[in-house]
Amino acid sequence: MDPDDHVCLCFHVSLRKLRNYIARENPPVPSRIADCLGAGTGCRWCVPFLVRLHDQHRAGEPMDLPVSPTEYAARRARYRKTGERETPDGDPGTTPTDDSPDGSPGGSPDG
Predict the structure, then answer these.
(1) Rounded to an integer, what distance in angstroms lies between the CA atom of residue 98 and that of residue 31?
(2) Per-domain boundaries in the chain
(3) Closest Cα partner for 45 from 13, 4, 87?
(4) How far is residue 47's CA from residue 40's CA, in Å, rounded to a whole number?
(5) Which of 13, 46, 59, 81 gets the highest tally of CB atoms within 10 A of its CB?
(6) b vs e for 67-102, b when ≥16 Cβ sit within 10 Å of the residue's Cβ?
(7) DSSP character for 35?
(8) pTM
(9) Of 42, 56, 45, 50, nearest to 86 (Cα)?
(10) Which secondary-structure segment (H or E) carries 6?
(11) pLDDT tens digits, 29-81
């Protein structure tokens, strides 16, 4: 994904904005990334991707999402239609709940 591609499609939050926010603010838990223009609080499709960026930052790794914007948007469209999500690696995943133990934002797929 290129830096100017949107990770949060609901609120048009780019990978560049998220990288800068995470590097500057060093959020202690992934859910605090929502403070960056509301990322992850709309349909919640991007939540696993936000968690991945947070994990990469905490591990001292470059923050990147190896998915094309076209595939990302297609996967989100499937999620919006079916409510079934895929993980950032493309594997079937689950919808996080509000009481996620890792502190990540969660909730119903209806947002």
Answers:
(1) 10
(2) 6-82
(3) 87
(4) 5
(5) 46
(6) bebeebeebbeebeeeeebbebeeeeeebbeeebee
(7) G
(8) 0.78
(9) 45
(10) strand 6-8
(11) 999 999 999 999 999 999 999 999 999 999 999 999 999 999 999 999 999 99
